[in-house]
Amino acid sequence: MAYIELKGATLDLPIYDVQGRSLKKTVLRLGRRNTIAEGTDGVVVVRAINNVDLRLEKGDRIGLIGRNGAGKSTLLRMMAGIYSPTLGSVVSSGKVVPLLDISLGMDENSTGMQNIRLRGLLLGMSDAEIREKQQSIAEFSELGDYLDLPLRTYSSGMRVRLAFAVSTAVDAEILLLDEVMGVGDASFMHKAEERLADLHSRAEIVVLAMHSNSEIRKVCNKALWMERGHVRAFGPVEEVVSQYETQD
């Protein structure tokens, strides 16, 4: 059975491009709340995630809420294994699929059809699975003959359509999403919402970060409120989102 468990998970991120004594002093002064410090080698270090204890299990649909910079995207990257915790641990069981940058791995000089394979491989699909799903991905994208042209000839909207079509064709036990992406006109957006809902239903655990509280209430059963890298509240979605909305 799929699960994700974090025990005292803490992540420190070094900032190597803070130059100049006055700028460094300013950054350190702004971080007096134990979120920014200076390491022994003089590098400024940001504590992006701070001592998070959390266990997610089958059936959990978690909405990450919090202000910009609260640590939502960073937490998703830790759950995905992109970042390893500085302290504590992150353990998961089940196939984890992070849809955090849906265009990652796509090549400008390759055709749309070739990029279906490239992106599919990056998401952990086998060659056989890609061949099985390639036609349905192509049809969903509605790009037609453009799929035989290099990606560099695509508009930004066409790129997102293709990336979305590939990314949402994957089978995941644990699905991690960072914001729902805009993918074109109203008719295609309706298709995209239905496809995303189907993807959610097939996964055992879903964790998503988004700024729409109404959407979180609609698709999630729990909410995780992040603030300055730590968990401010975690529990039933209505309870936590209501607390967040009435904060000072």
What is the strand and helix layout of this fold?
Blueprint: E1 3-15, H1 21-30, E2 36-38, E3 44-57, E4 61-65, H2 72-80, E5 87-93, E6 96-99, H3 112-122, H4 127-141, H5 156-167, E7 174-178, H6 186-202, E8 205-209, H7 213-219, E9 222-227, E10 230-236, H8 237-245
Parallel strand pairs: 4-8, 4-9, 6-7, 7-8
Antiparallel strand pairs: 1-3, 1-5, 2-3, 9-10
Helix pairs in contact: 3-4, 3-5, 4-5
Task: Summarize the entry for a quick read.
The chain has 8 helices and 10 strands. The chain is α/β, with parallel strands linked by helices and 248 residues long.
Overall pLDDT confidence: 87
CATH-assigned fold name of the largest domain: Rossmann fold
Helix content: 25-40%
CA distance, first residue to last residue: 40 Å
Beta fraction of the residues?
Answer: 25-35%
Spans where pLDDT lies below 50 across 5 or more residues:
30-34
Order of helices and strands: EHEEEHEEHHHEHEHEEH
User: How would you classify the helix and strand content by structural class?
Assistant: alpha/beta
- Radius of gyration over C-alpha positions, nearest whole angstrom: 20 Å
Count of the domains: 2
Q: How is the biggest beta sheet arranged?
A: 6 strands, mixed
Broad shape: globular
CATH top level of the largest domain?
Alpha Beta
Report the CATH architecture of the largest domain.
3-Layer(aba) Sandwich
- For the largest sheet, list the strands in their spatial order: 6-7-8-4-9-10
Q: Report the strand count.
A: 10
